[in-house]
Amino acid sequence: xxxxxxxxxxxxxxxxxxxxxxxxxxQYDRLKNAFKGVKSLKLNYAAKALSNxxxxxxxxxxxxxxxxxxxxxxxxxxxAGFAAESIIFTPNGVSLQEIEEVAEMGVQINIDNLSILxxxxxxxxxxxxxxxxxxxxxxxxxxxxxxxxIDSKFGISIHQIPLLLRIVxxxxxxxxxIHMHTGSxxxxxxxFLYASEILFETAKNFKNLDFIDxxxxxxxxxxxxxxxxxxxxxxxxLSKRFNEFCSSYGKELTLAFxxxxxxxxxxxxxxxxxxxxxxxxxTVFAQIDSGFNHxxxxxxxxxxxEIVNISNPEGRERxxxxxxxxxETDTFANNRRISEINEGDILCFKNAGAYCFxxxxxxxxxxxxxxxxxxxGEAHLIRERETFEDILxxxxxxxx
Length: 400
Description:
Function: Specifically catalyzes the decarboxylation of meso-diaminopimelate (meso-DAP) to L-lysine.
Domain Orn/DAP/Arg decarboxylase 2 C-terminal: 17-353
Number of helices: 12
Shape: globular
CATH superfamily of the largest domain: Alanine racemase
Low-confidence stretches: 141-149
EC number: 4.1.1.20
Helix content: 25-40%
Number of domains: 2
Order of helices and strands: HEHEHEHEHEHEEHEHEHEHEEHEEEEEEH
Largest sheet: 9 strands, mixed
CATH architecture of the largest domain: Alpha-Beta Barrel
CATH topology of the largest domain: TIM Barrel
Radius of gyration: 23 Å
Distance between the termini: 53 Å
CATH class of the largest domain: Alpha Beta
Pathway: Amino-acid biosynthesis; L-lysine biosynthesis via DAP pathway; L-lysine from DL-2,6-diaminopimelate: step 1/1
Strand content: 15-25%
């Protein structure tokens, strides 16, 4: 694999994102098999994790649905070949107009606040709507990605269920789904199962449901021996409880998830070249041809990406701080053991498939990198590296 990655860096340049379709397919099948105990399962890939249209087309070919958070992601999904009815739209804080535009496309609407719910239900009572509930259960590895707690901006509080039911009754709207999302990097499946019980209890208030969406947030390993969500155990326990609920509800419902990171994180790597090896009184810096403009997660979330020197994988390990070229603190790793680094070496950042390219920017007027998909063993360029013309695109020069 290292040899192929080095060839990709040589052919397409660095920095560059590389994704492996085989790993994506493996993760998709693993999740599907974990819940084979339910009669109807729908996996809606969370487009925000990695939204390149070639990746979306891959998921469509697998039979996946699509979870979207913006009208632009909806349009990408439709262009990638997803049927409108296989897309769910779960925005937060967007205008009624945007929700109405998406509804006109035939996409499943998911509403997470009472104000928009009442407005939409009053104007469009016959349009099927899913409701996002906030179960007030804290899950997730970082406050920025824990979205189910009591002070979260996401979802309608379980304490507001009486008001929610009054709105539904007054408008006569059609509620066909119930949804929750507690947060990302879930470690304790018992906490997830506890939140699921709250969702089941809430679902009893609605008589015409077609599905219950349990969100996602499954943790993936970021290093050897790292803890990950036990998908198989969760699948066994939640499937059993879901089937029991369907029996008492009197109808076979669809169990839905919206995985993103779980499906694509481990499938992606980020390759960057070492520009300078710089030693100070106490630190050896490996300075690369990238920065948090391309990979912001370590600076934003404190996330740890394993870094491998694929130019010298068997070299003697030394301690390095890997830093970028952005003109402020721009650190990928502090005091990390990595095989000896020389200028010109290619470093490989693992777990770079989710929330990496999609959060890239042009900060410092740098170009966003290229993307490559390895499919059936062959490397395909799926996004060209930006150029200076792209930086100027949409800018308007005025006479000064």
